[in-house]
Amino acid sequence: MAPRETGAGDEESQRDVEVGQVLGEPPPPPDQGADGRDESDEDDKPTLPFSKARCIALVATVTGASFLNILSIQSVVIILPMIGQDLGIPDSSLQWVVSSYALTFGCFLLLWGRIADIYGKRLIFILGSAFVAATMIANPFIPNEIGFNLFRGLQGLGAAANVPTAIGILGVTFPPSKAKNYAFSAYAAGAPLGSVFGNLIGGFIASFANWRWVFGATGGLAVAVTVAGIFVIPPPPHREDERAPSGGISVLKTVDWAGGVLVTVAILALLFALTEGNAVGWDTVWIYLLLVIAGLLLAAFVAWQWYQETHTTRRPLVKVSVFRSARFSAAMLAMVLFFAAFNDLLVSATFFFQDFQGLDPLQTTLRFVPTGVCGIATAFVVSHLISRVPAWLLLLFGSLSVAAACLLFAIPIPADTSYFAFGLPAFILAVIGADITWPCLTLFTSQSLPREDQALGGALVNAMGQIGRAVGLAITTAIQTAIMARDRGVEVEHVGRILAWEPASLAGLRAGQWFNVGLALCCAVVVAIYFRGTGIIGKIEKRTPSSPRLRVIEVTWVPV
User: Fold this and answer.
1) pTM of the entire structure?
2) Cα separation of 334 and 402, whole Å?
3) Domain boundary, last residue among 269, 299, 316
4) Does 63 map to a domain?
5) What's the mean pLDDT when you consider all of the chain?
């Protein structure tokens, strides 16, 4: 065995290794032992960034952001009638208790994602989580409709800060490895679990205590996430801190505020129009005016980002060049289509059980419980499959699973058929599809973007999912309303609510589910066309003794 080099060359090698670690590269394997065997070959596992216990705590903490985001929506959906009764909110305005949160969350994702990449993901995650906790705890003490909806909007603003930042933290903390696959799969389980526990918390508290305790419980969980973030998430490397501006006028120069305003107002106009279209009627002129304004602002945003990227040295909010990749653009489209179908399925199923079958909130909640168990099991299985099975096969299976789930609610089986015959299989298929698709697409996005754009990548995938949810729900509700109006023989604006065991209501719900089947199948087509041949997205490359030197060549030139 050749003698080991020492001196200046050894110090230079150590500095190169440190640079690679700062940029998110896995550490190089150690020297060979005396028997000539590479000691790092054991399972080809790169060293974890911290102890195993702290890595698990870190993943659980950032997953808490995704969990809380869905929990704070679903738990409130269950108690909407009680909120409206106590605060005197009419049924026509009650949707804004949920929509105000969704609007601010969707609108500020991209801006917060870029701010987190510039000023520190840990800082923004902790501040966003603390803001969610404070506004959540204060919300039930607001005695009027306007103030109540305002604080719901503020909760969405905080969630827009910590949810995409959580993905960014995972992206920069874990190098490509089994640990990274496990981390993204665990994070993916946060959303369906949040939906399940949101139903449980809302249903149980509404049945046995005052609805205001729902906000107290979710606020307490947000406090726990904040405290855990302070102690578990490590401070950023010194080199990353050097890129952050010190304050003052440099803040205005660093963040693309013009782009942030353009995209925020554009998404606000789009989501507001889609949300209100079904409430005021799609023949209302200002709805289409808002849609046109949203389209023009989005076009102006894209043009502004392209100009900054190609003609200036400033960092744009979003690099338009990433969308030149047909596969990356297809991933964003798949996110829109998939989560339009998945979220519509959950909303329509809630209406089916609670409004059409006349079940109380607790009984409705219990029907969602199996999805939590299935979600945990699926996340564990996918964390292994993602490093062994080609990504396009996983995504295709996930899309077809959700299509089959929607189909079970759409086909004309007797309405009083047992839940275990169609409802339970549908929920299991839907959760399997979501817990396969979400980690694959987030991991793909993370690996497609540089280290300095990881939080923005998290914002992109969440924004696409939010837009898909709004667009899908608007179209599904319009289809459902039109079918109900046709069967009742009334105008659309006078169609009214879903009635228990009414054939017209059932026909409308099933028509909406057929549309969701189409959305999921379109997602499958996009995957089959653009993702075929992607290979294994979570593949772990076998390291060789020469790889550290090659890695040094790749990273030492990157400005930090």
Assistant:
1) 0.79
2) 13
3) 316
4) yes
5) 82
